[in-house]
Design goal:
mainly alpha, 153 residues
């Protein structure tokens, strides 16, 4: 029974990690698409060259701010997710403690080891999400800077 639950938990953790990774990929694609679409729309607009360049610079600046805001939002969501996960771990810890108190003779594992493993996994996920959020912001900023540089040329 304990092994089956552990396997199910591990599968859920893997699925959650896959979903987070997929969401981050979609966010990157959306940010890139928005920037490219905005620049394309400005380039195709029937305006004078100077106006178009000013519009491109303004749009690039707005896109940079938008990417920065989205990155901050992603970090906030990540932090909330980490907090929720820690709360769930605390709840799980309580349930595990009760189970171990009832089944001491059947189990040779300590709560502190289990808790440390969960905390290590949470820290790894948090670090990965934070790094991915920073990378997304950096990639978006670089894309905007490249577009601005190309337009200025």
């Amino acid at each position: 029974m304990g092994l089956t639950n552990a396997i199910k938990r591990k599968r859920r953790e893997i699925e959650k990690a896959k979903k987070r990774k997929k969401a981050l990929q979609y966010a990157k694609i959306a940010a890139t698409s928005a920037a490219v679409g905005a620049v394309g729309g400005v380039l195709l607009a029937p305006k004078a060259g100077k106006e178009t360049i000013e519009d491109i610079v303004a749009t690039a600046s707005n896109a940079s701010q938008s990417i920065s805001d989205k990155s901050k939002e992603l970090v906030d969501k990540t932090n909330n997710s980490i907090k929720d996960t820690k709360d769930k771990i605390a709840e799980s810890k309580s349930k595990i403690k009760e189970y171990l108190n009832n089944k001491k003779d059947d189990i040779e594992i300590t709560l502190s080891e289990t808790n440390e493993e969960f905390e290590d996994k949470i820290e790894d996920v948090a670090e990965d999400l934070e790094n991915n959020g920073k990378k997304l912001a950096k990639d978006g900023k670089k894309l905007v800077d490249d577009v601005v540089d190309d337009v200025k040329k």
